[in-house]
Amino acid sequence: MRLEDALLDSCLCQPDAPLGGDPRRLLVSDKSTAKQQLSDLKPWLNQQQTLLWANRRDAVLLLLQGPDCSGKDGVIRHVLSACNPQGLALHSFQAPSPAERAEHWLQRYRQRLPAPGLLGVFNRSYYEGLVSDLQDGLCPDAALASRRAEVATLETQLGQQRIHLLKCYLQLSRGEQRLRLERRLELPSKRWKLSRADLEAHRQFDSLQARWASELAASHSSAAPWYVIPADHRWQRDLLVASLLARTLERLQLDWPAQPAPFSLAELQACAG
């Protein structure tokens, strides 16, 4: 049901040019087939999430990063709608509040790591502390090396805690971002999402992408790889992320937990009297 490994692996970050690919490139050429494939995959994802929850041994953490309008909310809406909300731990991170700035910068992310059995989703993540915090003047450039080291330590700890990490960067072209911002301006149903910061980020699109390219290259490894998802085509983006999530769950080889029943059929039937 999911996309084949070779196609998924073609999205692996290339550290020498992390954002060198064309965000408009088509890896899946048939839109209607891709949408049907995603629809067919959703019941399987739902079952695997239930198995994850039933076993309460492992957790999965999906990181969604990307420029404004790249579709982080869209992935959550179209892909994770397959999942039982009770088994999801979904968090969206904005700029840190004054109270959060008074804590260690990683604390707010550590507090929201998924417990065993949960599928966690970070809409933006601790990588914002390596890019946006510097861009917004919340962290000096001199602290970047130590923050990178802290992120590497955190991701090692995730593996030790059986939290399986899937890092997806949704790559969007500047032209497509402009078109999506125009649509948000035009539609009241989308205009509420906008702020002045979105305009400034669009102005700084190239410099922000250069910063992200540096961080993707620095933090990509075989143990915690980045997948760079061409995101100009929403339908392809959703199927790619869904297939990567499916592969992550496949590798856990989940099955129903083998445990004795807490009571017998005879005990249950005795309640009838």
TrEMBL record:
Q: Which UniProt keywords apply?
A: Kinase, Transferase
Task: Indicate the segments forming the Polyphosphate kinase-2-related domain, all copies.
Answer: 30-250
One short Pfam family name for this protein? PPK2
Taxonomic source organism:
Pseudomonas fluvialis
* Highest taxon of the lineage: Bacteria
InterPro entries documented for this protein: P-loop_NTPase (IPR027417), Polyphosphate_phosphotransfera (IPR016898), PPK2-related (IPR022488)
**Family to which this protein belongs:** Belongs to the polyphosphate kinase 2 (PPK2) family. Class I subfamily.
What name does the UniProt record give this protein?
Answer: Polyphosphate kinase-2-related domain-containing protein
